[in-house]
Amino acid sequence: MWLIMLEAGFALFLLVFIVWWTMFHGRNEDAGTDDTDSNHRN
Fold first, then answer.
1. SS (H, E, C) the chain
2. Could you read off the pLDDT of 1-42 as tens digits, one per residue?
3. pLDDT at residue number 15
4. pLDDT of residue 32
5. Burial grade of 29 (CB within 10 A; 0-12, 13-18, 19 or more)
6. Which of these, 11, 18, 13, lies nearest to 3 by C-alpha position?
7. Distance CA 1, CA 7 (A)
């Protein structure tokens, strides 16, 4: 039973980590490059 709970906890941690990584890590870099590219084109 403890193995199932450990696996469920790891899956929850992995889900939260993936959501956090996609929301905060990639967003700042992409937003910065998109803003500079659009300013240079205009």
1. CHHHHHHHHHHHHHHHHHHHHHHHHHHHHHHHHHHHHHHHHC
2. 999 999 999 999 999 999 999 998 765 555 555 555 556 665
3. 97
4. 56
5. exposed
6. 11
7. 10
